Structures are given as C-alpha cells and as structure tokens.
Amino acid sequence: MTTQDTTSSVPNKRGSSALQMGPRKKASSSDPLVSHGRHFGRTVFALCNYPSLLTNGVLRLEQIEDIPLEDFPAEERREHRVFEQLLESYPGLLERLKDGSEEEILHVGELIGKGAAGARGDDTKTLKSAILDWISPKGEAIRPPLHRNSKIDRGFNHDLTGSLLCPAGLDWNDPQTKEKLRSGEMLVCGDQWPIFLYAHHAYDPEDPWCGLLRSRLLVYAYKHVFTSPSSVDREPKATRSGNARLHGMNSVTIASLAYIATQVRFALSSSSVFSRTDTTTDSETFYHSLLDLLEDPEEYKEIDELLTWWNRQVFPTSSAAKRPISANSALSKIRQKRMALKQASNPVSS
C-alpha cells in the first residue's frame, strides 16, 4: 500500500465503503433498473451497497474536479471504477443522479440493489440443488446421500463436499486435517481458496496459477446461470433466452467468474442463508480476494489467457474466444499473401 493510501488528504464525507453489502432494504417499485441490477450484480460487482455507491460516487465526481482520482485511497478508487462502470452501462443514469434529490439517488440505488439481491437469491436457490448433480460420481449415487432441500450435511460434514471445499495446499485425506476442519478448530478464511477452483482439483504450490478457475464444476455453474440450465452439458440453443443473451452479453467478465466461484462455494457449504455477517463462509472476503487477483495489472498475461479459455467454454462463437484461423481458409490465404508482400517490400538487410 502506498503512502497516499494511508495518509490521503481527500476529505472523507462518506461512511463505510460501498463495496460491502449493506443492510437489506425493500424496493417495491417496478423499474428497468431492477433488471439492470440483476445483470450488473452478476457481471460487474455483486456484494455492494448500491445506495452508498451512488451517493459516494456523485460526491466524488465533484471532488475529482479539484483532486485527481489517483490521490484517493485504493478502496475509493476501486469503488469509483465500479460507479463509472454502472454509469457507462445504463444510459441516462448520470443525468438522473445529477438532477435528482438525495432521496431519488437512494431510491435508484435501492432499485439496482433489489435486482442484484434478487438475482443472487435466485442463483443461490437453483444452484443449491443443481450442484449435487454435478458433483455426483459418474454412474453412482452420493454416499451418504446429500439432501437437495437442506444443507446441514454439506460443507466439511460430508466427505464429498468437504474434499471440494478443502483449502488448496491442505490434504483432505489426512485424518487430523479433516477432523480440525470439521470441528472448527482450523478456521478457513475467505482468502484460503478451496481446491474445487482448480482444474481436476489439482493444486501445484510451485505454480499456483496452473488450473486456477478452470474446473469443470465452475463451467457447469457458469453456464447454468448465464446461458441456461439446459446448456450445462451441451451447446446453448439459439432459441433460449438465457441471462447472457437477454443482456447482450457475449464474453466472460472478471467479476462474473468471482461471482460464480462464490456461489459454488456457498452451495457446497453447510450455511443455509447467504449473509454478509456469516463468518463461517466468509463469502465477502472470498469474493474480494478473487477480484484482487483478477484485477491486478501485473497478472495481465495469466488473466488474459484465463478469459480466453473461459470464452471458448461459454461463448465459443464470440470474437472474445480468439480462436486460431483455420489453416486452409480463404482468410488464412489472404493473411499469408499480405505477409509475403510486406516482407518482399521490406527486405531485412543482411
């Protein structure tokens, strides 16, 4: 953390960070912002206090006329990036906020928050049951059985879910480790990532990026939420109006990966209610820790490769999938000819 992060001279007119889940509020009005909030929460920032995000953002717009955004603390810079993404994604929102009263700003935030919370609740409900189909051994039933409508026997209480939630680097098959996790003697913080995040559930401490966020379980959950439950084990039908299609989404976002990972982790846990105060699942810390990595510019190469891999899994026909050009295609021949002409006109001197 830089000095300016800890000793910022920026006046603090705001309360706690908006990038934390606020108290639950009801927004009864029907508004397009509710639908927008559903998608925004899934794909840009999920666990957010939207009324505070908007209030803080409007105040900060005035402040950055005199103070560069770089002079604000790191948490406020991230919060403002989320605020700007929200403004960019909803035409006319900035004018509505600037022209509106404080009550109007809070109301808009509650509508967006209602959508985000509603989507999160719907996904939590459907994944609770679907996850059992995906983790069942092929051709076998889960032993002992796990209930679809109750989660009390999940988490570290069951060998199957426990093995998936076991923090990478620990050995679930070690009796002492298993007992400490089950008894709570060994507490698992949100930034201790579970092994299910890794492809084939294999973690290499010498190369912790290898296979990270590329597990089959995550792909199934992502398709279930964004392209439709029926697309999990096959290509999505063009006639299906999944969440991605409804919102014009044709590529995977960083935040959507963190969101799905958080949902899968919660579905495997024994916690029954998704709550910001649940220290057992510590979902907010988990979500934020993934975003911290995926938004780190120094990890650009790995992140770019990860997103390309994901787009091939979920949106294979999208340009974001970056598929190589077919060797014998007309496009390939045109590119080869252009390259040959370019080399002929610019010979390399010996």
TrEMBL record:
Residues 1-34 are annotated as: Disordered. Pfam families: DUF6698 (PF20414). Residues 1-19 have a biased composition (Polar residues). This is Uncharacterized protein. The lineage of its organism: Eukaryota, Fungi, Dikarya, Basidiomycota, Agaricomycotina.
